[in-house]
Design a protein that fits this description.
This protein is α/β, with parallel strands linked by helices. The protein has 12 helices and 10 strands. The site of S-adenosylmethionine has 23 residues, from helix 5, strand 7 and strand 10.
């Protein structure tokens, strides 16, 4: 008889408080054949606390490609594998993502046991709008990609959630200040731990605070989105000095076809599409 393929279980673990784990998660970690841990020594504290004796193996940022392939092979041979990371939900800004990708590609069943995640914990207690938010995770390290990511945040009207390490927070806040000015934010520190706090600031205030109080502990940064009216005003200012051709091209670069772009430009300028068309015809004749 053909051996049944194993399952990959993504198991959310505490982000600070050892009690923040579900009964189901503990049972699953006891039942699987193997637990892939981001850091086996770190996870040992949790596993010992819940008397989980399952075999562990390390799966982290620096071995994720080869190790994911190895784990996939083991699951194909019938092993049930759980993956846990240092904190929170595997796959959210951590190496879990690669294993999920490879497992799915290999046709392995993947399931997630929900539990803590710093993004949701921070957002829910921030007091900023949580109806629409954008999760950036860690900003890219690559200079060009980072600049592009920061540039995209400039016009963002949704609440913005970022992960950051204490030793990089000042630099990141300086970069955010260059794009977002004195935007309101929250620094959510040490969530679920003894010194948990949510600090309400503007970006310059947060920078001044960290000058006096060296940043410590894990943190999530939550920024207010741009007010929709302000976003609209900036959008208007962007095209006001443009010719109609440049205005239409702007929309086409954003992915619209010429017809849609002409309609959008007409809407911005409060004129009819026909007026725009006439202008462009003239443009073409002059070319
Ligand atoms: N997978 C995790 C999750 O679901 O939240 C995130 C992993 S990511 C590598 C680690 C980052 O999460 C930290 O740098 C910090 O930004 C955030 N984080 C994790 N635990 C936290 C805590 N207790 N308080 C504040 N932020 C935390």
């Amino acid at each position: 008889m053909e051996k049944k393929t194993g399952t990959l279980y993504l198991v959310a673990t505490p982000i600070g408080n050892l009690e923040d784990i579900t009964f189901r998660a503990v049972q699953c970690l006891k039942d699987v054949d193997l637990i892939a841990c981001e850091d086996t020594r770190h996870s040992k504290i949790l596993l010992d606390h819940y008397e989980i004796r399952t075999r562990t193996t390390s799966y982290h940022e620096h071995n994720k490609y080869e190790k994911a392939a190895e784990l996939v092979l083991q699951m194909q041979q019938g092993l049930n594998v759980a993956v846990i990371t240092d904190a929170g939900t595997p796959g959210i800004s951590d190496p879990g993502e690669e294993l999920v990708k490879q497992a799915l590609q290999a046709g392995i069943e993947v399931t997630s046991l929900p539990g803590p995640s710093a993004v949701v914990t921070a957002l829910s207690m921030s007091g900023l709008s949580s109806r629409r938010f954008v999760f950036e995770g860690f900003l890219p390290m690559d200079k060009k990609e980072r600049k592009a990511a920061l540039g995209r945040l400039e016009q963002e009207t949704r609440t913005i959630v970022l992960y950051e390490a204490p030793h990089r927070i000042k630099k990141t806040l300086e970069e955010l200040q260059a794009v977002l000015g004195d935007r309101e934010l929250r620094i959510c520190r040490e969530l679920t731990k003894k010194y948990e706090e949510v600090l309400p600031f503007t970006i310059p205030e947060a920078l001044a605070y960290f000058e006096q109080n060296p940043p410590k502990g894990e943190m999530v940064v939550i920024l207010k989105g741009l007010e929709p009216e302000e976003a609209q005003a900036r959008e208007t200012a962007r095209w006001q000095d443009m010719s109609i051709r440049e205005h239409v091209d702007l929309y086409m670069r954003q992915g619209m076809d010429e017809k849609e772009a002409m309609k959008a430009a007409a809407g911005d300028r409060g004129v009819s599409k026909r007026d725009i068309y006439r202008e462009l015809k003239v443009d073409k004749a002059e070319d």
